[in-house]
Amino acid sequence: MVKIHPTAIVDPKAQLGENVEIGPFSTIKDDVIIGDQSVVGQGVFVDSGTRLGKNCQVGHYSTLGVPPQDLKYKNEKTYLEIGEGTIIREYASLHRGTTYHYKTTIGKNCFIMTYVHVAHDCQIGDNVILANGVNMGGHVEIDSFASIGGLTAIHQFVKIGQYSFVGGGLRVNKDVPPFIKVMGEPIRFGGINGIGLERKGFSKEVLLDIKRAYRLIYQTSYTMAEAAAAIQKELPPRPELQLIVDFIQRSDRGLLRG
User: Fold this and answer.
1) pTM of the predicted model as reported, rounded to 2 decimal places
2) Edge-to-edge, what's the strand order for the sheet holding 21-22?
3) 60 labelled catalytic
4) Which of 26, 45, 46, 123 has its CA 20 to 30 A from that of 38?
5) Could you confirm whether 121 is annotated as catalytic?
6) CATH number of 3-139, picked from 3.40.50.970, 2.160.10.10, 1.10.3720.10, 3.40.50.1820
7) What confidence tens digit (pLDDT) does each residue in 121-177 have?
8) Cα distances (Å, whole numbers) of residue 173 to 19, 55, 207, 249
């Protein structure tokens, strides 16, 4: 049974799944899909083109799927897609895409805290944590299981790898490879995210090889291309190490310094 507060405005063309709840003074526009068991809080604005998965929570006064803050955008039909189980807390703003990707994507089981801004065409994986006040430019890519500390600003087109941890209050203007910690101003490599990786079940052998890979990247005179080749030649053929190599090869803004 769908529960819609009497003060909410829901366009008849919106598609609401089973047991969806819409809070007071919220607005749901046309061409919106909200999955089963999702809860939309008070004063939320969900614009056309938003796709919200099952079992999601949207905090009070958040805005979802509004037009991108991009001067090239000319009201084309674009989308915001949010995976099931994702929690969005109060006053977050998540914009839909431009014709670059045609959509902004947020994966499953993410935790997006208060005052976070996800800009147009961002691609966020599963189980990502964005702490209070994280603000990102357009086209940012954050891979699964990454965590971003509060009040951190992320430059447009930056890529952040799997299982990385970016500290709070930082300015991220370079690509952050997988499995590491980021610290300092300007940002720099702060070692591997050992505690986080142990909690996720990574073995000591894998952690040791990840450390060896980053020694080749940051503690030698190799270029990034040479370091990637050395990882493949000198270390065991682990999928975790291949993720690091693949990330180096697809980096556009260059990796943060060591």
Assistant:
1) 0.97
2) 3-4, 21-22, 39-40, 57-58, 87-88, 111-112, 129-130, 147-148, 165-166, 180-183, 188-192
3) no
4) 123
5) yes
6) 2.160.10.10
7) 999 999 999 999 999 999 999 999 999 999 999 999 999 999 999 999 999 999 999
8) 42, 34, 26, 18
